Amino acid sequence: MNIVEFANIAGCSSATVSRAFHEPGKTRNATRQHILELAEKLGYYPNASGRALVTGIHDVLGLVWPLEVEGPSGLYAVRVLAALTEQLERNDLDLLICPVDRRRPKALEHAHRTMCRSRCDAWILLYPRHNDPLIRSLRASQKPVICLMGHVEECPDWKYVVLNQASWIKQALKWFKARGANRVLFLGHGRHELDHEERMAMFNKLAPRYFGINVLMHSTWPLNTAEVGALLAAKKVDAVIGVDDAAALVAARAIQLSGDRRLKKVQIVGIDDSPEAARFNPPIATFRPPLDEMTACAVDLALGRPVKSQRFEAAFIDRVGAKNTAVQRTGSGIQGGDGAIQNLLAGGPSGAELDPQLASSHLT
Fold first, then answer.
1. Residue 298 located in a structural domain
2. Is 297 part of any domain?
3. Of the residues 52, 126, 153, 317, which has the fewest C-beta atoms closer than 10 A?
């Protein structure tokens, strides 16, 4: 049964049938309900290929999933996929996943063929990189590209959805300062990862405003637990910002294994709000990316809706305080907690300015 035959039975136009399935907001609820109930009874569904020939729209998005970033577990990517699933349901879209390991030439060749032959309306690229080997393939697909978790400057026509890295780094520094920390360490850096590079750059720019010369960086990856423990003790570090929760967990494990009582006072903050950070004893303070909002924006961009590339605010999850309160978005101030800490977080250290001649110490 084609759409014209079904429309005759339903007593409406084929355009109304199409809108009932694909653009529900343009159809009266009663009309759409009548069409959907009749379609279920007759076993009818619009022919996707036929619709694509007419409209050029396939209702399919592609997700490029670089496997080498997180390894086989891909815990963060799975969370992104879970958030994306809700958007697929809401917009009645299908998803094609293109897994690829950038380190393997054969994997890149296969990804190139997939991108060129797949009938996707747009591609969402997770974990983009500068000089990314996937750029050539995505260009060849001649489809819109939305970068998630990074902005590729050499592709100015590509849209992007990223975190406001400066905002959460600044809030973490204020939080440490308010709790009496004196020397802060930025820990970890995934090579080539744009979000990690931006976090490190923001830390290097902002940390001297709050800690002067007592600013350290250890940008090795992967991290060695024993080495991190020795570093914390030798440099008398009392505050650590992990490039992500995985780095923060390495610091926490290093402290537990060291047996050095002085390290028990080291404060740690990560980002990602991973289950491991929440389960660790004691739990680790972290920042939660708004994945639902970010994936919704990515889908809107992929569908060509009138939205712009955006930077989103992460929410601070304070698991250290006695009340275990979640703090509002980094761009929106603080709720809950000690009043003095709130005041300091709101304004930062008075008179603190960035000395352009001041450079943080690199320990790698």
1. no
2. no
3. 153
Give the span between the Cα atoms of 287 and 172, in whole angstroms. 9
CA nearest to 298, candidates 148, 197, 132: 148
Tell me if 89 is assigned to some domain.
yes
Say how far apart CA 308 and CA 183 lie, in whole Å: 39
Which DSSP letter does residue 30 get?
A: H
| d(C-alpha 286, C-alpha 242), whole Å | 9
Q: Quickly count: other Cβ atoms within 10 Å of residue 55's Cβ.
A: 11
What pLDDT does residue 22 have?
A: 72
Two structure tokens written together for 326: 């979640």
- Number of folded domains in the chain? 3
Q: Give residue for tokens 């409406």.
A: 12
Same domain, 142 and 192: no
CA distance 78 to 64: 13
Q: Which mean pLDDT values do the consecutive 10-residue runs of the chain (364 residues) have?
A: 86 87 81 91 74 61 94 87 93 93 96 92 95 95 95 93 97 96 94 90 97 94 93 96 96 92 93 93 95 96 94 94 44 39 40 32 36
d(CA 273, CA 221): 20
Angle separating helix axes 165-178 and 339-347, nearest 10 degrees: 140
